[in-house]
Amino acid sequence: VNEPKSEKRPASILIVDDEAIVLDSLAGWFRQDGYRVETAKSGKEALRLLADRSFDIALVDIKMPGMDGLELQQRMAEADPNLTVVIMTAYASVESAVKALKAGAYDYVTKPFDPEELSHLVQRASEHRTLKSENVRLKERLEEISTPDPIVGTSAGMERVRELIGAVADSDATVLVKGESGTGKELVARAIHARSPRRYGPLVVVNCGALAEGVLESELFGHEKGAFTGAHEKHKGKFELADGGTIFLDEIGDVSQKVQVELLRVIEDKAVVRVGGQEPIRVDFRVVAATNQDLEEMVERGAFREDLFWRLNVFTIEIPPLRRRPEDIPALAHHFLDHYTQAMNRRPMELAPEALDALRSYSWPGNVRELQNALERAVVVGTPPTVRVADLPVRVTRSQEREEPAGRSLEEVERVHVRAILDDLGWNISQAAKELGIDRGTLYNKIKKYGLERPAGVP
Amino acid sequence: MSTEPASAPIEGVDFVPVGALPAATAGELVARVSRHLAVPCRLRRPDPELYPTLLTGRTQYDAHTLLRDLEARRDAPERILVAVTELDLALLVFTHVFGLARPGGGAAVVSLARLRPELYGLPADAALTLRRATAEILHELGHAAGLDHCQDFTCLMHFAPDVESIDLRGQTFCPHCAATLPPGLLAGSAVGEGVSGPG
After folding, report:
1. How many residue contacts between A and B have a Cβ separation below 8 Å?
2. What's A149-207 look like in SS3?
3. Listing from the earlier edge strand, what are the strands of the sheet with A107-110?
4. Phi/psi at A364 (nearest 5 deg)?
5. Are B65 and B91 spatial neighbours (Cβ–Cβ below 8 Å)?
6. Angle at A386 (CA atoms; ends A383, A390), nearest 5 degrees
7. Cβ-Cβ contacts under 8 Å for B127 (sequence gap 6 or more)
8. Minimum Cα–Cα distance from A120: chain B residue
């Protein structure tokens, strides 16, 4: 018979009808195109076949003695939720069509079939089934690849961070992640996104501190063609790209006052106007912002808009610096060691006890990122199966060689202590002053007074 | 796609008109089809007993019973029997068919009723109708000799859901389908180059 058939990969079809002539005609017709076809004369027989093997499409007659097509359709859906069922009916009626579709059928078709229509219907049903399967596979794959790196550490501080992530992820609340540089603020943002209902949407990361004001505006909000010199094409901004997902605004404290105003408007209106554009574009996003700065203090001195601060500070997660949770260092070290030995295809490595002691003793001013870099370096320079002290950065090992005060005078004890704190914090003057409880000016005076010098190799 | 190569040779193709098919039309069709075949074609006399039944509640005739009756009239397994009719053929489950054959069944029925341009509101064109009918007979002959449909859109065994598709399909078998047919059935001119390879 020369009739229309699908040109796609042949699907497997189960035809259920109590009339033998219908089964024979349809089976023969589909088989000519290489479809795998099985037939059943009753609902019972169809369910038996379905228990043994799976089908892509079932063509089910609505009117059969015993179990009718609608009941069979429901039983089939229970047996195989992915099966695409097409109901066949002898009489076209709105009632039967509604019944079939309400029962969950993909479509319904009236006898006698127009060969062309039946061909297209089966082709569409086959594509529908393929898309459904692909969708399931892609979601599984997405779950695999979008599972963020684990947040390692059992300290009370990190347990609290995990609790807060769990509490806020499901909601659509704006989250402000606070923490020193290198503590893993982006990791927290990724964990929130991955556990939120938006997880199948995009997570768009913007490092606000890395871009000049004009560039940041265009990056965030997009621009129209010809908006400025060099704007040769229309460009979607990060907010538009984050539609349906999450936008992570890192280093939010570095944003200029002008961009702060625009950010506030976009977050409040949930709409962006591209640079050079007029029309607002509705966008559905969730904001997670992060900073290593003291935003409250910035608000007080007028460097950060108060209204934006309150808009962002809906739910705060503060990540403690690594020096405040040294008990997490071994677990983190082992995590990174495993990661890099696998990534570099090296034999498994273990930390020598002295090396672990050195990692524990160091104050990690660069936090987890610095520890990560130290372990990456150790895997590169070390010889399996052991990471030795010599494989660690000099800055880390030197911290073990602490200078003892030469006398008991207050000045000598202060000199040694100030130097130790500066060394521990990689000579980060702001952090050291904060740790010592003095202002930066006083710290500079003490450095000058005691003739302290930044060691070579410390930036 | 095609089934495995058929082994039994075909020695000839017989045509039998069904219903009021003008003798000139029947003769012209046999002449046209025979140009594509390397075996002799014969036009049999009409058989008054060979007439399809009406489908219940419809004004169309049952292609299925006609094919069954035709298969019963085959007098030799090495000859294919083709019934050609002006009657509008259909199946219980289909609104219409252009033709019907069981794969390897040795018999085929073809209806001219829906090949005529005038059915679609276009001017009558006898040459076009004959061209379509020739293609349709060769397509059903392919089925009767064991072929299934072919994915190569230039091949005569590619399915055609409507007359436009028959016109676009091409008038030759692809090399793969030709090689699958019984040896010695096709004339060299009936084999095209094909575009998409086997199946």
Report:
1. 81
2. CCCCCCCHHHHHHHHHHHHHHCCCCCEEEECCCCCCHHHHHHHHHHCCCCCCCCEEEEE
3. A36-40, A12-16, A57-61, A84-89, A107-110
4. 50, 65
5. no
6. 70
7. none
8. B161
* Residues pairing with B109 in the sheet: B83, B100
> Are residues B84 and B52 in contact, defined by beta-carbon separation less than 8 angstroms?
no
Distances, alpha carbon A236 to alpha carbons A218, A219, A243, A274, A304, in Å: 9, 8, 11, 8, 27
Contact present, A195 and A162 (Cβ < 8 Å): no
Nearest to B39 by CA among B82, B99, B84, B72: B82
What is the rounded end-to-end Cα distance, in angstroms, of chain B?
4
Q: Provide the token pair at B42.
A: 């014969």
Catalytic residue among B86, B136, B140, B193: B140
What does the alpha-carbon distance between residue A75 and residue A105 come to, in Å, rounded to a whole number? Answer: 12
**ipTM of this predicted complex?**
0.81
Nearest C-alpha neighbor of B55 from the set A381, A25, A2, A444: A25
Give yes or no for A26 touching B (CB within 8 A): yes
Collect all residues of chain A within an 8 Å Cβ-Cβ radius of residue B1.
Answer: 33-34
pTM score of the predicted model: 0.57
Q: Kindly state the percentage of chain B with pLDDT values over 90.
A: 76
A211 token code pair: 């871009």
By Cβ distance, the residue of B63, B91, B149 closest to A32 is B149
- Judge contact between A223 and A234, C-beta under 8 A: yes
| pLDDT per position as a tens digit, A305-337 | 999 999 999 999 999 999 899 999 999 999 999
